[in-house]
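Memo to structure team: turn this sequence into structure tokens by end of day. - J.P.
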Amino acid sequence: MDAHAEITHKQQLIATHKQRLHYLELQKAQFGLHTAPHIQIDIDNTRQEIQKLTQEIQTLSQAAMSTTATRTPAGTMPPVADLTANQRIRLREILINRFSLSELKTLCFDLGVDYDNLAGEAKLDKVLALITYYERRRQVAQLLAAGKHMRNDIDWSLST
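Reply from structure team:
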């Protein structure tokens, strides 16, 4: 299983564990002081499993990013400090037109950016906020590398 598929699988596991945790917490709330000990043990174990999976995803994401960076031939994706207006437009068009909302959320997750904390509600707003976030930190190359790793079918050169 490649790193992206493994990350997706672990994200699905986390979602399932969160559903289970929600159910267990409801049981604990209903029974109050009379909650059976196994329910609290299950809550603790489920939280630990979510934390473990989250750490595994971060490790996989970082490994995938470093592997992509070392495999990228020299000159194909130079470090980008400041984007020109045309480069910014090209990057925006790639993220808007070639990424689904789900893929955009996964890209943010892989980069360690909380999608929900990006400014705006619409996909365009989120894309603009993501590009601005990486421009301010002078880490556009990291955004490009993650995008290329996730969607290597796209021409990521920012020249139009």
